[in-house]
Amino acid sequence: MKNEYSVDHDVVTIYHKRRSGEVIESYVSVEDLPRLLAFSVSWVVCEKANGSMYVVCRKGKTTLKLHRFLTDAEDGDIVDHKDRNSLNNCRDNIIKTTQTENMRNTSIRKDNSSGHKGVCYYSRNGKWKA
Q1: What angle do CA 50, 2, 86 make, to 5 degrees?
Q2: Cα 32 to the chain's mean position, in Å?
Q3: For the chain, which residues score pLDDT lower than 50?
Q4: Whole-prediction pTM value?
Q5: Are the CB atoms for 46 and 53 separated by under 8 Å?
Q6: CA 61, CA 41: separation in Å to the nearest integer?
Q7: Rounded to 10 degrees, what is the CA torsion of 91, 97, 101, 107?
Q8: Through-space distance between the first and last CA atoms of the chain, rounded to whole angstroms
Q9: Which of the residues 59, 79, 86, 129 could staple to 54 if both were Cys, CB 3.0 to 4.6 A apart?
Q10: Regarding beta strands 23-29 and 88-89, do their DSSP bridges make them parallel or antiparallel, or are they unpaired?
Q11: pLDDT value at position 109?
Q12: Residue 39: helix, strand or coil by DSSP?
């Protein structure tokens, strides 16, 4: 790993310097540090259109997400961040899961009017549906 990092007890903080000069921190478990150090790449933070961020590296033509690298996820595997913080890649926060379980761990959408996940209002008949 080419990034600067620091170790505090059982958590490694990885520093990602953006072109703007802003430094963003991501986290991994100290047990994963030897594996990251052996992987000679720079990990960078990418931002999705919705504002969420995640850590990736580019190795040749391949883009690899840090949480998938740390869990040895294969194509088709779903990896979830329990606390919904995609910059927290500590072992106790990332798990392989099913698509159903992953969707249960989402936050309420901004356009939600019921205040509950999975409940929507049908204006045609004036009723709520779960």
Answers
A1: 25
A2: 16
A3: none
A4: 0.76
A5: yes
A6: 13
A7: 40
A8: 47
A9: 86
A10: parallel
A11: 65
A12: coil
DSSP string, 40-96: ----EEEE-TTS-EEEEEEETTEEEEHHHHHTTPPTT-EEEETTS-TTEE-TTTEEE
Residue with tokens 């209002």: 121
Rg (CA), the chain: 18
Provide the token pair at 111. Answer: 């356009």
Residue 123 region by backbone torsions, left for phi larger than 0, else alpha for psi between -120 and 50, else beta: alpha
Q: Of 62, 94, 92, which is closest to residue 77 (Cα–Cα)? A: 94
Q: Which residues of 70-91 are buried (b: 16+ CB within 10 A; e: fewer)?
A: bbebeeeeebbbeeeebbbbbe
Strand partners, 44: 56
User: Tens digits of per-residue pLDDT, 57-67?
Assistant: 988 888 999 99
